[in-house]
Amino acid sequence: MLWSLIKILLFVGVIVAITWGLGMLLETSGGVRVSVANTEFTFTPLMTILGLVAMLAAFWVLLKVIGLLSATFHFLNGDETAISRYFTRNRERKGFEALADGLMAVASGEGRTAMAKAAKAEKYLARPELTNLLAAQAAETAGDSKKAQEVYKRLLTDERTRFVGVRGIMKQKLAEGDTDTALKLAEKAFALKPKHEDTQDVLLSLQAKSEDWTGARKTLNAKLKHGSLPRDVHRRRDAVLALSEAKDVMLEGSSIEARETAIEANRLSPDLIPAAVLAARGYIEQGKPKYAARVIKKAWGAQPHPDLAAVFAEIDPDETPEARIKRFSALTRVSPEHAETKMLLAELNIAAEDFPAGRRAIGDLVETAPTARVLTIMAAVERGEGADDAVVRGWLTRALSAPRGPQWVCEKCQNVHAHWAPTCAGCGSLDTLSWTDAPETSVSMPAGTAMLPLIVGALGNTPDAPATEDAEVVPDHEVIVVELDDDAAEKAADQGQK
């Protein structure tokens, strides 16, 4: 409003100044005398000014005529658009100015201004391949998704802008949560530009979410082919997708294909624990226990895991506890100081009823890593050695508030999963689950170990323990269960729920 008032005042001021100047010229005596071919011409000051203006106008017209003649000359020499460009040059200048202003408005977040500039640019330029792009971005900036979708649909009609239109509609469908339509559009965009890295990532993510493992592996191979993925990362993720594909084949009942795919996944990434487990089971079904043991040993050396121990036991399920301890030495001597190795050896000795050996095997884990599984093993050792019920209940009560230990945790969003999966259930990221300690939570017993006397009475020889922050009791893997009497079990369960 203020700017409009200023412009009006400036216009009035200019008119007043011109009127005053003309009046002064009319009142001025004398003039300008011009001699041409012995002929004199005398002009008043006003006539002199008007003559100069006329000469400037004539010069401007002369330039325009020369430009027209030049355009005609180029047209006659084969430039079919020379004359049309000559007459539309001014419109193009205004159109490109509007286009530049619109781009600046989009960058500044001024969506409505950008939309107005896009409409002005279209009016002067009549080049939808340029102005539609600006109009779509302006509509998105202004939050007008309906208008943006209309513009993106217009972009589909031009081969040069078809990819932009498909990708724009795909992003809108993703924002709306319509992943099925977004997947189809991502496939179309990938077909138009297979080297486009962002499109590759979106397509791979959507294929993984829809469990299209075969299609995801093709997309992953395309990323490797076009140089947008390092070879070592490709091998790892291809193994993850192959493992997921093997599980799907297994559900369909084709065990031979499942075994072959699982073995391929293990070959691609020997340290991928679920792939090693599935490949080992495939070898066991084929009657090749040595191959199964080799796969498990290699994976155990990379990362000891209870699932590996479980499938190693499946190689000979009917062996005696003593024979199992001897056979498992092939695993326990690989990483003897690892916590998983110590717990495994303790559980094997408890199964063989060698409780002192179980206590020795667990070592200092009670002090250094008092997880629910470690404390449950100690309860079983105490029970086996004939300790009082109060001591056993004390260990189990400590297990109520102890951390669960390593779990499948997403490296990106820290979401904890009960079982391994190719994608995170929280953030949907591919291949981000790792076997590690979960982040601490705020879940804990109301007063930590200060509540123990109320639960189990006098603890006797039960070691003191600091309060921890995880209320889980039973880990995912198999543990030795120590029975409580009904009253103690009920109190412990009530305390855990609190």
Q: Explain this structure to me?
A:
This protein has 498 residues and is mainly alpha-helical. The chain contains 23 helices and 5 strands. A hairpin with a 2-residue loop joins strand 1 and strand 2. The protein is elongated.
Give the gist of this structure.
The protein is 66% helix and 4% strand.
Topology:
Blueprint: H1 2-27, E1 32-36, E2 39-43, H2 45-76, H3 82-108, H4 111-125, H5 128-142, H6 145-155, H7 162-176, H8 179-192, H9 197-209, H10 213-225, H11 231-252, H12 255-268, H13 273-285, H14 289-302, H15 306-313, H16 321-332, H17 339-351, H18 355-362, H19 365-368, H20 372-384, H21 389-400, E3 406-410, E4 416-417, E5 433-437, H22 452-456, H23 486-497
Antiparallel strand pairs: 1-2, 3-4, 3-5
Helix pairs in contact: 2-3, 3-4, 3-5, 4-5, 5-6, 6-7, 7-8, 8-9, 9-10, 10-11, 11-12, 12-13, 13-14, 13-15, 14-15, 16-17, 17-18, 17-20, 18-20, 20-21
What are its keywords?
23 helices; two-stranded antiparallel ribbon; elongated; three-stranded antiparallel sheet; mainly alpha; 498 residues
Mean pLDDT: 80
Globular, elongated, flat, extended or rod-shaped: what is the shape?
Answer: elongated
Structural class by secondary-structure content = mainly alpha
Task: Give the fraction of residues assigned to helices.
Answer: 55-70%
* Arrangement of strands in the largest sheet: 4-3-5
Gap between N and C termini: 66 Å
User: How much β-strand is present in the residues?
Assistant: under 5%
Largest sheet report: 3 strands, antiparallel
Please write the string of helix (H) and strand (E) elements. Answer: HEEHHHHHHHHHHHHHHHHHHHHEEEHH
Low-confidence stretches: 442-498
> Number of DSSP strands?
5
- Taking all Cα atoms into account, the compactness measure Rg is 41 Å
Specify the number of helices: 23
